[in-house]
């Protein structure tokens, strides 16, 4: 039986809130940091990243991440996504 | 009165779970993706990123982000953090 070859790709899907969409967690983090005495904070945005190990080619990984983002990971109404192969 | 000069720095603080710490959200995301028919997913990790706009020099921003991470944003028992100036 031929040895099974594992082609491992690391991909990251970065999910951000679209411009104009409220980011309560970011706002609360900014407030908490200011209460701790930090100055000069103009804005805080929260970003979610899914870091994945995939057993497929780079090309397949890009296509799969695109589909995962559209089907499950990103809400198209309020979020945008970016895919990066590491 | 001299014009106030704004030195804006974009910094990102990336918070990851340490090796060996359970990532229920990552595990559930993997399961959900597999239920949707995606194959070849070896692992899914969730990463939190705080994207900040800071009115300070790059040097001050690095020091401030270090302190923000230690004081509020990262739980040293289960999380590690990385700081990146954009």
Automatic annotation (TrEMBL), chains A, B:
Pathway membership, UniProt: Purine metabolism; IMP biosynthesis via de novo pathway; 5-amino-1-(5-phospho-D-ribosyl)imidazole from N(2)-formyl-N(1)-(5-phospho-D-ribosyl)glycinamide: step 1/2
- Primary location group: cytoplasm
Give the E.C. number(s). 6.3.5.3
Key words of the record = ATP-binding, Cytoplasm, Ligase, Nucleotide-binding, Purine biosynthesis
Answer yes or no on keyword Nuclease. Answer: no
Return the protein name: Phosphoribosylformylglycinamidine synthase subunit PurS
Its gene is purS
Family matches, as Gene3D superfamilies:
Phosphoribosylformylglycinamidine synthase subunit PurS
- The main enzyme category here is ligase
Q: Which reaction does this enzyme catalyse, per its entry?
A: N(2)-formyl-N(1)-(5-phospho-beta-D-ribosyl)glycinamide + L-glutamine + ATP + H2O = 2-formamido-N(1)-(5-O-phospho-beta-D-ribosyl)acetamidine + L-glutamate + ADP + phosphate + H(+)
Tell me, which GO biological process terms does this entry list?
Answer: 'de novo' IMP biosynthetic process
Protein location: Cytoplasm
**Lineage start:** Archaea, Methanobacteriati, Thermoplasmatota, Thermoplasmata, Methanomassiliicoccales
Molecular-function GO terms, alphabetical: ATP binding; phosphoribosylformylglycinamidine synthase activity
Q: Which domain of life is it from?
A: Archaea
- Biological role: Part of the phosphoribosylformylglycinamidine synthase complex involved in the purines biosynthetic pathway. Catalyzes the ATP-dependent conversion of formylglycinamide ribonucleotide (FGAR) and glutamine to yield formylglycinamidine ribonucleotide (FGAM) and glutamate. The FGAM synthase complex is composed of three subunits. PurQ produces an ammonia molecule by converting glutamine to glutamate. PurL transfers the ammonia molecule to FGAR to form FGAM in an ATP-dependent manner.
Origin species, per record, is: Methanomassiliicoccus intestinalis (strain Issoire-Mx1)
Family, per entry: Belongs to the PurS family.
**The protein's assembly and partners:** Part of the FGAM synthase complex composed of 1 PurL, 1 PurQ and 2 PurS subunits.
Cellular component per GO?
cytoplasm
């Amino acid at each position: 039986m031929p040895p099974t070859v594992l082609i491992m790709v690391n991909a990251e899907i970065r999910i951000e809130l679209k411009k104009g969409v409220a980011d309560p967690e970011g706002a609360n983090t900014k407030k908490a940091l200011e209460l701790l005495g930090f100055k000069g904070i103009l804005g805080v945005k929260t970003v979610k990243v899914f870091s994945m190990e995939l057993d497929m080619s780079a090309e397949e990984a890009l296509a799969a991440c695109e589909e995962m983002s559209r089907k499950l990971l990103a809400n198209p109404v309020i979020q945008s996504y970016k895919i990066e192969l590491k």
